[in-house]
Write a structure and sequence with these properties.
Elements lengths: L5 E9 L10 E8 L5 E5 L6 H16 L7 H10 L7 H22 L3 H4 L8 E7 L4 H13 L4 E4 L19 E2 L2 H19 L4 E5 L6 H10 L7 E3 L10 H7 L4 E3 L6 H9 L5 E2 L9 H13 L3 E2 L9 H13 L6 E2 L5 H6 L5 E3 L2 E3 L12 H4 L14 E2 L9
Helix pairs in contact: 1-3, 2-3, 5-6, 6-7, 7-8
């Protein structure tokens, strides 16, 4: 074992979606010179999946072959600076795939689940929140009640998706997802007034603004939602406008969660140092994997900020498993977003974390505790095509952040 080396590194792409759902998942497999010893990591950047695959297969593979996989910290630093220009979602996701795989290998070598390598359990399971949508407040209420009946106590509530109902496109307007930002800002307080009047305050309610509206409108909306006791308000501002969080903090005490689009340390440091947010919710693979995420969690702990890692349906089950290992081992864990797995995903990825009664639980297998059926994954290739939902436009056709 003293001569343990990385023998191969490769990206595996699969899209086990159903119906109109297309999930472009990227998993990195790091194989070692020890027969049967390998690790898996999530590198899913569904909007640019082929670019991530190229970085893994064409650049990180030749860089890493022959090196000792146990030196995960050194290898993370090496991969981070080897291209000279650093960070960005493509580079970070490719690095994350390798990094998580190295932690997976480390756990298998130790015969321990990764959460034990991170300090052991602070809790048996991690509370999760689900997503409830609807066309009207009453319809959203019905969907929230359905989750409550399943044992969930945290529900994110939207009405008509991100930014509310779409609007008619102007004559000759380009393709895109059109919405009325001002109308959305007026409707959201009405939604939460209805939900609190009908559901009371024993259920934790969340809302995602998805950084779509003007900063001053976001400040006003955060203030208007204060009476309804949200668990948190998510992504109120785009990364380019984080300076507005200081004004938002001065105006109201609505708990704020931010970080889904962050890819660089300098994006989250001002918010943490200034105690301008209450939850950090980075996409773990977009910031480079478990190694930077555990450091970020520790930093946030010192400033009284809790974790709420990004966990939508287009994170691979490997990425969700990594999130859960962080969740159960972090003292300052807050909540975990949860999209759930289809039967097909669970077949492709044996060992998926399980949700029971509003909590998600890791298994006790060594490493991340999850595997991949490559033959089955290959039957569901990733589709190409141009995404429309990221072509977000205001009623007059002006392009805005998605």
């Amino acid at each position: 074992m003293s001569t343990l080396q990385i023998r191969d590194v490769r990206a595996i792409l699969t899209s086990p979606g159903t119906g109109n759902i297309q999930k472009r998942l990227i998993v990195v497999k790091v194989e070692t010179s020890e027969p049967g010893l390998f690790g898996l990591g999530c590198a899913t950047f569904t909007q640019r999946h082929r670019a991530v695959r190229s970085v893994v297969d064409d650049y990180l593979k030749p860089l890493l072959i022959g090196r000792d996989p146990r030196n995960s910290e050194d290898l993370w630093q090496l991969c981070h600076v080897n291209a000279y220009w650093r960070s960005g979602p493509v580079m970070n996701n490719a690095l994350s795939g390798v990094d998580m795989a190295l932690w997976d290998i480390k756990g298998k070598l130790a015969g321990l689940p990764v959460y034990q390598l991170l300090g052991g359990k602070c809790r048996e399971g991690a509370a999760v929140y689900r997503h409830a949508d609807g066309r009207t407040p009453a319809e959203v209420e019905d969907n929230v009640r359905a989750f409550l009946a399943q044992g969930f106590r945290h529900v994110r509530c939207q009405m008509g998706g991100y930014g509310g109902a779409e609007v008619a496109r102007p004559t000759g307007a380009p393709a895109g997802a059109y919405f009325d930002a001002d109308g959305y800002a007026r409707r959201v307080p009405v939604l939460f007034e209805h939900l609190r009047n009908t559901l009371g305050y024993d259920v934790e309610l969340l809302h995602d603004m998805h950084e779509r509206i003007a900063p001053i409108t976001a400040v006003n909306l955060a203030k208007a939602l204060e009476p309804y006791g949200l668990y948190f308000l998510e992504d109120a501002l785009p990364p380019e406008q984080i300076a507005w969080f200081a004004m938002m903090r001065r105006q109201c005490t609505t708990p704020l969660a931010m970080g889904e689009l962050f890819v660089n340390t300098n994006e989250w440091l001002p918010l943490i140092e200034g105690r301008l947010i209450d939850f950090i919710r980075c996409h773990v693979s977009a910031i480079g994997g478990l190694t930077p995420a555990r450091k970020l969690a520790v930093l946030c702990e010192a400033f009284g900020i809790r974790t709420a890692w990004h966990g939508p349906g287009d994170v691979s089950p490997v990425g969700h498993a990594a999130n859960v290992h962080l969740d159960v081992s972090s003292p300052n864990f807050g909540i975990q977003e949860w999209g759930g797995f289809s039967d097909l995903e669970q077949e492709i990825f044996p060992g998926c974390p399980e949700v029971r009664g509003g909590y998600v639980y890791p298994n006790d297998r060594p490493g991340l505790g999850i595997d991949i059926n490559e033959a089955l994954a290959a039957k569901y290739p990733c589709p190409d095509g141009v995404l429309e939902w990221t072509q977000t436009r205001l009623p007059d056709g002006t392009l805005v952040t998605p």
